[in-house]
C-alpha cells in the first residue's frame, strides 16, 4: 500500500486536535473588534471617567448632542483600549522564539498540552474581569493569550507538517489557516450585540477564547507523537514505527524509516542548530530569506488592515450595517481557504501564491479608485466593496495559508524548529507594526492608503516569481538541491562541498 496516499482516522483526529489551537488563535484575533464600544464604556466606568448617569443617558438616547463626551474619546480609555489590542501581538512576538524549545522539550503533543494551561488561564482572566478592574484583567488576559498563540502558531504547522503524508502535506498544512479563519468568523458572529457583544455578556465573549484549549486538552492524549521527533530527536525507532502505523495504518514503513535514519545520521553529525546559528549559516541563508519574505508578504499585503478596520472601511464606503459586511468578509475568507485546501496539492504552492498576490495588487488599486470617487458616483461604493471581498478571496487562495507550512517544507529536521520560530516572530512583529501604524498611515494618505499596499504586493509578486521554487510533492533533498544550484556560480567550490554534505540528507517531510 502506498504510504504517501494513506489517510486514517487517527491522522484525521490528530490534525483536527492540533488545528483547535489555530481555531483559538483566530478567535482571539477577531474577538476584540465587534464589542469595542461596549468594552470602552466599561473601561471608562472602571477608571471613573464616565459616570453611570452618562451611560444611562447615552443608552436611552436622551442626551443632547455634544452634552456627554463619548467614553472612547477619553485619553485614558484610548490608551487602555489600544494596549488591549496591541498586547496580544507583543505576547506572540515574545513567545514565537520559544516554539523550537517547547517543541523539542517534551515533544510536539506534550508541548501543545503544556501551552493549554496558558490559554485556560487567559480565558479565566478575561471571563472574570468584572470581579476586579476590567481594563487590567483584560490586558493581562490578552497578553497571556498572545503568548499562547505565538507558541501554537508555530507548534501546530510543525506537528501537522511532520505527521502528514507527502501527497497531502499541502492540504493538511492549509488546515491551520482554515481553522484560523473559522475562529475569526465565530468570534464575529457571537460578538454581535444581540448575542454576546453586549454590556452583560462581553466578559463571557472574551473568556470563551480559552474554550478550544479545554477540548484540545481532552483529545491530545489520543494523538500519536510525531514519528520524526521520536526517531530523529530521541532515537526511539520502535516508538517511531508504532507512531507511523497509528498514523498511516499497516503498510511497509521501510522507506519512511530509512529516510528518517539518514536524516538522523546527518543531524548527529551537525551541531544543534539554534536561532543564532541559523541566522549566521550561509547554508540555509536562501531558504531563510525566502521563508521570511513569504511571511512578510502575508502581513504587509494589507490584509490585517482590512481585518482590524473592516467595519470602519465599510462604514466609509456607505454600508448601512457595516458589521454584517465584516461578517460577510469572514464567510468569504472561510470559503476561499477551503478552495486553497482543495487546490494546493494540485496547482502547487508557488502558483497559488503568485495568483493570490497578483490578484490582491489589482484589488488594492480598484479599492483606491472606489474610495476616491465614491462621493462623485454612487456606484463606486460597490466597486470598493467588491474589491474588498475579492482582495480577501485572493489572500486566502495563497498568501494566507501557504507561508505557515512552506517553512516546514523548506527546512530539514535540524534547523526546522529554529526556522519556524524566526518566521513566526517575523509574522507577529509585522502584524504588530501594521496594527499600530495603519490608523496613522490612513490619516496621512486618506483614500490612497491601499496604493502603498499595491506597491508592496507588486514587489512581493516579483520576488516570489524569481526566487521561490515549487515544493509540491518534493522531498527536502530535492528542495535543498534547488537552493544549492545558485551557489555554484559564486566561486565557493571548497565551501560548496561541505554545504552539499550538510544538505545532502535533508529528506522528505
From TrEMBL:
Protein topology in the membrane: Multi-pass membrane protein
NCBIfam families: SP (TIGR00879)
Protein name, entry field: Glucose transporter 2
SUPFAM superfamilies noted in UniProt: MFS general substrate transporter
Organism, scientific name: Trachinotus ovatus (Derbio)
GO cellular component: brush border; plasma membrane
Membrane-traversing stretches: 7-27, 78-101, 113-133, 139-160, 172-196, 288-311, 323-344, 351-373, 379-397, 418-441, 447-466
Family named by the database record: Belongs to the major facilitator superfamily. Sugar transporter (TC 2.A.1.1) family.
Alphabetical GO biological process terms: D-glucose import; dehydroascorbic acid transport
Domain Major facilitator superfamily (MFS) profile positions: 14-472
UniProt keywords, alphabetically: Membrane, Sugar transport, Transmembrane, Transmembrane helix, Transport
Subcellular location: Membrane
Any one Gene Ontology molecular-function term assigned to this protein's record: D-glucose transmembrane transporter activity
Primary location: membrane
Record bears the keyword Membrane: yes
Amino acid at each position: 500500500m502506498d504510504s504517501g496516499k494513506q489517510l486514517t482516522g487517527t491522522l484525521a483526529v490528530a490534525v483536527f486536535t492540533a488545528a483547535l489551537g489555530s481555531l483559538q488563535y483566530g478567535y482571539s484575533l477577531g474577538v476584540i473588534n465587534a464589542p469595542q464600544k461596549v468594552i470602552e464604556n466599561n473601561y471608562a466606568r472602571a477608571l471613573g471617567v464616565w459616570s453611570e448617569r452618562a451611560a444611562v443617558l447615552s443608552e436611552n438616547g436622551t442626551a443632547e448632542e455634544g452634552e456627554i463626551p463619548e467614553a472612547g474619546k477619553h485619553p485614558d480609555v484610548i490608551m487602555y483600549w489600544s494596549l488591549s489590542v496591541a498586547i496580544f501581538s507583543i505576547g506572540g512576538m515574545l513567545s514565537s522564539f520559544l516554539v523550537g524549545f517547547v517543541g523539542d522539550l517534551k515533544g510536539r503533543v506534550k508541548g501543545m498540552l503544556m501551552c493549554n494551561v496558558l490559554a485556560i488561564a487567559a480565558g479565566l482572566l478575561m471571563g472574570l474581569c468584572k470581579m476586579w478592574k476590567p481594563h487590567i484583567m483584560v490586558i493581562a488576559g490578552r497578553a497571556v493569550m498572545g503568548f499562547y498563540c505565538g507558541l501554537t502558531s508555530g507548534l501546530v504547522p510543525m506537528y501537522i507538517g511532520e505527521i502528514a503524508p507527502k501527497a497531502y502535506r499541502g492540504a493538511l498544512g492549509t488546515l491551520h489557516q482554515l481553522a484560523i479563519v473559522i475562529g475569526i468568523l465565530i468570534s464575529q458572529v457571537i460578538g454581535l450585540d444581540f448575542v454576546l457583544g453586549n454590556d452583560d455578556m462581553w466578559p463571557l465573549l472574551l473568556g470563551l477564547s480559552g474554550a478550544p484549549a479545554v477540548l484540545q486538552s481532552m483529545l491530545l492524549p489520543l494523538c500519536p507523537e510525531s514519528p520524526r521527533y521520536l526517531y530523529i530527536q530521541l532515537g526511539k525507532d520502535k516508538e517511531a514505527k508504532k507512531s507511523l502505523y497509528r498514523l498511516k495504518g499497516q503498510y511497509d514503513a521501510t522507506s519512511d524509516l530509512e529516510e528518517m535514519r539518514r536524516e538522523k545520521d546527518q543531524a548527529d553529525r551537525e551541531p544543534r542548530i539554534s536561532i543564532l546559528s541559523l541566522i549566521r549559516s550561509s547554508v540555509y541563508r536562501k531558504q531563510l530569506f525566502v521563508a521570511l519574505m513569504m511571511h512578510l508578504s502575508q502581513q504587509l499585503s494589507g490584509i490585517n488592515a482590512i481585518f482590524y478596520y473592516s467595519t470602519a472601511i465599510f462604514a466609509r464606503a456607505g454600508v448601512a450595517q457595516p458589521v454584517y459586511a465584516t461578517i460577510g468578509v469572514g464567510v468569504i475568507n472561510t470559503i476561499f481557504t477551503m478552495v486553497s485546501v482543495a487546490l494546493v496539492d494540485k496547482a502547487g504552492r508557488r502558483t497559488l501564491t503568485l495568483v493570490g498576490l497578483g490578484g490582491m495588487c489589482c484589488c488594492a488599486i480598484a479599492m483606491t479608485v472606489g474610495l476616491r470617487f465614491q462621493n462623485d458616483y454612487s456606484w463606486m461604493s460597490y466597486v470598493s466593496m467588491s474589491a474588498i471581498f475579492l482582495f480577501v478571496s485572493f489572500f486566502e487562495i495563497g498568501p494566507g495559508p501557504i507561508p505557515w507550512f512552506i517553512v516546514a517544507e523548506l527546512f530539514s529536521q535540524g534547523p526546522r524548529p529554529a526556522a519556524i520560530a524566526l518566521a513566526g516572530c517575523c509574522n507577529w512583529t509585522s502584524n504588530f507594526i501594521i496594527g499600530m501604524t495603519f490608523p496613522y498611515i490612513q490619516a496621512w494618505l486618506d483614500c490612497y492608503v491601499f496604493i502603498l499596499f499595491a506597491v508592496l504586493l507588486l514587489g512581493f509578486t516579483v520576488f516570489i516569481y524569481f526566487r521561490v521554487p515549487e515544493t509540491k510533492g518534493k522531498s527536502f533533498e530535492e528542495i535543498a538541491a534547488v537552493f544549492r544550484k545558485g551557489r555554484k556560480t559564486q566561486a565557493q567550490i571548497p565551501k560548496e562541498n561541505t554545504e552539499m554534505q550538510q544538505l545532502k540528507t535533508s529528506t522528505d517531510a
